[in-house]
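Exercise: predict the fold of this chain.
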Amino acid sequence: MQSSLLQLLILGGIVVFLVLRLRSVLGTREGFEQPPAQVNAPEPATRRDFEVIEGGPDHDIVDHVAENSPAAEALAEMKRIEPSFSVSEFLSGARGAYEMILMGFERGDIADLKPFLADDVYDTFSDVVAQREAQGLTIEAQFVGVRELGLSDATFDPATRTAEITVRHVGELTSVVKDAEGNVVEGSPTAVKRQKDVWTYARVMGSNDPNWQLVATDE
C-alpha cells in the first residue's frame, strides 16, 4: 500500500515537471492566436506613360474649322468673351433651329419665329408667305431630317462683340404645293427632296439674351 502511494507521488511529480518544462519552452496560448502582421514594402512610384500638354489646341474649335484660321481665331475670341460658349453645343442648337425655321416658313407659320430672325430676314419671309396666300397656294410639308451640317465660317467684331457663324445645312423633307381647290401643283407627299441652305446666325457675346438670330440666308 505504501509502495503504491509512493509510486503515484513519483509519477505525479514527473508529470508536473514535464508540464512546467513545456510551458517554459512553448509559452501559453489563450484563444485564437493572430498570425504575425505582414509588413508590406512600399510600392514603387508608378511612372507616367504620358505627359499633360498645357495650352494645346481647343478641339471644340479645331474639330470644326482649321487651326489658326481666321474662323478659328474668331471662335476663340467668342469663347474668351463668353467662356461658357461651346461651338459643338451651338451647332446642335443650329440643327434644331434649322428645322423650326424651315418648317415654319414652308407652312407659313412665321409669327412665332420673329425672335429668332433678323428684321430684314423676317420681312423677306413674310413677303413670300403673303405672295403664296395671295395666289391661293398652300404648302404641306414634313421634315425628314438633317442629312449634313457643318460650320462654314465665323467672324467676330471686338468693337460691338457681335459674333456671326455661318452654317451649311442639308435637310430632307417632303413638300406639296396645292392651289385653292386643293389640287397638287408641285411636289409629292411621298418623294423626299433634299434642300441645301447656308445660313448665318448672329449674337452679341456676353449679353443676357442667349438666342442667336438668323441674319442671312443663301444656297
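Check your answer against the key: The CA atoms of residues 117 and 214 lie 5 Å apart.
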